[in-house]
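Think of the structure tokens as a kind of shorthand, similar to the way a musician reads notation: each symbol stands for something richer, in this case the local conformation of the backbone. In the example below we present two proteins back to back. Begin with the first one, reading the sequence and then the tokens, and try to describe in your own words what changes along the chain.
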Amino acid sequence: MPNTTHIFECHFHKPQENFSRGKVKQNHESKFAEQFAKAYQAKFLNIHAGTCNRNTLFIREVPVSGNGIADLLVLSWSDSRIPQKSPLPDFEELNPTVRAFEFKLSDWRKGLMQAHRYKYFSHASILVLPNHKIKSIKSQLDIFRKLRIGLWGFKAETKSINRLYTPRPVNQQIPQYRQKAIRLVEQTVCSQFGPLSKLPQTIQ
């Protein structure tokens, strides 16, 4: 399996045009998401120290029909899932753990609702806010626990990730949604680098 160090971006959707102020806010959140993705990718094995899934794939802006557009999807799988006779199997065969992330600069309630929708196609869903916003909602942490939505803070200047609550990955009740998300991941990779069988050993 290739060392997928590249952070892909899904281009299979056309977000509704916003007014200029909305676009500026969207650009700020997009930059925040990009900075987080790079930091999380570098820290993944430290953050999930007990996991056997050491291989990862990062995809941004994944639209799963009926369940919203995930700001970031992270697939992870173990080496034991890779068939010896097929070094480049499709991602569904790898049975990856799927983590979905929503990013908000201020409106955590809206972010919580969006992250809750991602639970339909992911094993774990996490809301990420700027680290300085976390203090004001610590008292609401029970809500996140009851809904099993993770709450993390991120400081872009220092690339630090503050994990207040991280839900354990669980299987979805409706597997079709997860399969749909994985198919979108495959389409994204293939559209940018060709068929999976022709992927380079290191994507940069």
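Once you have a description of the first chain, move to the second and do the same.
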Amino acid sequence: MGKESRYVAGQFKMRYDYAGPGYGVVGDLEREAIHMVAQSEGILLDPVYTARAMAGLIDMIRKKEFGAGDTVLFWHTGGIPALFEYSRELWH
């Protein structure tokens, strides 16, 4: 069995400044995240949720918001089929 863990709300910092212009609206940051992660890691991000979250993480890294001893977990939540719906917007 795994180790039991308990978390409280104060242990998490919620960020709302990366919500973007609206649901399903793909901006430059999302587009950059999709291309960067696909090229460097071979991982596909959906343009609606996961790319926006990754774009926020990339921006926070660039702003040096994490220290050398920090642990960062990015949880990819799926949504790959949305890439097909947004293909013209993303690749052309």
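Compare your description with these statements about the second chain. The mean pLDDT is 85.
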